[in-house]
Amino acid sequence: MSDESIAARIEQLVADEHDLRTREQVDREDVDRLTADRERLRALEVELDRCWDVLRQRRALRSSGGNPHTASVRDAETVEHYQQ
Prior knowledge:
By secondary structure, the protein is mainly alpha-helical. Helix content is 75%, strand content 0%. It has one domain (3-80). Helix 1 (3-27) runs antiparallel to helix 2. The longest helix is centred in the middle third of the chain and has 33 residues, at 31-63. It starts with a helix and ends with a helix. The model has no long low-confidence stretch (mean pLDDT 90).
């Protein structure tokens, strides 16, 4: 896993998120589709948070002289409960 591959994944997730947000406008009359869109959107947001987290870990390790390859993807529960 490289910073570039993580960044590419983030870009893809952001594109998917944008598509879903656009589709939400179209699906707002269809409750089932809107619910599915929102569930998928929430899953995308969590995955984005996890990708950003591992990228930040890698950058922090690199800047402190550590090995960025020791960064690990944390579980969603951990990442979603960080204090900002």
